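Researcher: Batch entry, complex prediction.
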Amino acid sequence: MARFYLTTAIDYVNNRPHLGQAYEKICADVIARYHRLRGDAVRFVMGNDEHSQNVFKRARQLGQEPLAYCDQMEGEFRQVWSKLDVSFDDFIRTTEPRHRAAVQEMVRRSHERGDIFEGEYEGWYCVSCEEFKPEKVLVDGACPVHHTKPEWIKERNYFFRLSAYRDRLIAHYEAHPEFIEPESRRNEIRRLVEGGLEDISVSRAGQAWGIPLPFDPKSVVYVWFDALINYVSATGYPRADYTDWWPADLHVIGKDITRFHCVVWPAMLMSAGLALPRQVFGHGWVTFKGEKMSKSLGTGVDPLEAADRLGADPLRWYLTREVAFGQDGDFSWELFEKSYNADLANNLGNLLNRVTSMAHRYRGGVLTGRGVVPDLGRFDEAREKFRSGLDRLDLTSGAAAAMSLVDAANELIARSEPWKLAKAGDEAALDGVLWDAAERLRVAAVLLAPYMPSSSGEILRRLGVAHEPSTLRFDADSAWQANGQRSLLQGSLLWPRLEAPASAQVSVDIHPAAAASTATPTAAKPATARSGGPAQAKEETSVTDQPTNPNPPAPAGVPLTQAAAPTPAADNRISIDEFMKIDLRVAKVTAAERVPNSRKLVKLSIDLGAEQRTLVAGIAEAYEADALVGRHVVIVANLKPAKLMGIESNGMVLAASPDGGKPMLVAFDSPPPLGTRVR
Ligand code: MSP
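Model: Structure tokens for the complex:
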């Protein structure tokens, strides 16, 4: 069994993760899942970089101990990664003892070898980059990345003899051209190293936040030197069995930090006598509407919000299908919705709906494979393109190859018109076509598993294929199956089409439907709550003729959203009787407290007049807990209880959520009696 050790950059924790960091984790996750699909023994490691000065400052601003702050941020990061279905095997933090042991050992070895020596440093230091900046790179005296004035630092510290590794690095790049990908970054790095390397400062004096140097505990290890070592500390180094996983097969990192990974890191490893990773892939940047993502400029995108809007799988799909891995790519809500509609609602989701509907309409829900093997040319080509695409980390073409099977199934249905075969009573031909179409869709779902794990599982389930996601294997499960019998299941649309762009809508949210469902696979639940059960396409109509839903779907983790405009299509309207089933009541908040480790949730005690209840609402980002006490709210009183972060919630609070904005509670001119029905 091949072994595959994969890592991402570890993130600074002075802010919550943004979409750029999430992009990297999602891409790496697709690669990790692909290797598991191939049957490799995979170790996928991510983590948090905690010894940065900005992290220290942020904690202090909040009046917290740095470590306590980092503990809390770990929870926030893990929550985002879990929501995005990022399947890491280990999560390392640079404040952990196992990491400290590895850092001290590597530093000790380099020191022993004479590669770490004492000297005096003075220069400009950008705290956000955690890097000394040569005068010549400053723009009007400011850091070109952060546009802030660096600090002038003059201190005695330790240096690493990077200059001594120039020739060995060049020799390594020559012997292993695959070491740096993509090629453009390889050329960039090569030019840089050929131009000569300067020794770098690797310690900071008079700082307590960091890992002490073993030979001079008054100084701490420079944060980058510290952070890079996470890749070996996660393997257990300096324990002897660290070589079970080291060297890493792939470091996935952003293009801004390739110099650290392709120059400094290999030199550090050479110095300490450790093997070098096989490959470093420097991916591009995700911009927002063409702008660099920045919280202060309002161009930062919250990955949770993106996943809340249309689902984690559609977000994963957009980022890996639309942004070529290695190049920069843009994110906008409009493009995201476009990709959702075109690929998922109109194409893949519609195909699933058609296949399962036809199976039920014409074959009582059971499809039979009668051993006929069609011309597999295009099918085999798609599998091969998928495999070779992912082997060379071309995530976009892997995704396109999987989708080509969906196209092939749609074409087959259009060409063979099963409804005519049904009318003519040609059962053998009908079985052949439907089996064929379902089989193409099944294999597409297998190939899509790394990209959209939850939806892929749901598609397979509906196709009647018993499977356990972790045991899916490329060779066996993507091969054509000509025989068998399968009972297909019908269900609600996985991705109801968006009629009006959700990015232009104002919605009324019932909080916190979402959090309750974070554990539910996205694919398994959308739309049922709103579209009132399975909606089926008529096969006689075109491929894209899917029942539409003017509202965005309610993906995992999102409040049920009822668009305020435009007016719902006629077939989505409900009768007054249906509306009256929802028991809306006036209540008053008597106590409120934030739910620990949750950004959005607040626990409320409410008074309904005749009874007291506890419920959990997703409004913590908009309201301070204290400010909620005494407020009148409207709640859905007859909702089944749901557990949110371990707290049982008995009802939901109504709030309006302007698109991209924070929830606003419904308010009254003057407070009605508690328990009054709202209709
Ligand atoms: N802590 C360092 C990495 C140390 S690795 C030994 C760091 N952290 S970071 O939080 O600033 O960035 C984490 C990763 O996210 C980096 O690989 C970075 O390139 C990537 N991205 C940050 N913003 C990004 C985009 N807008 N788009 C894509 N990736 C980006 O650097």
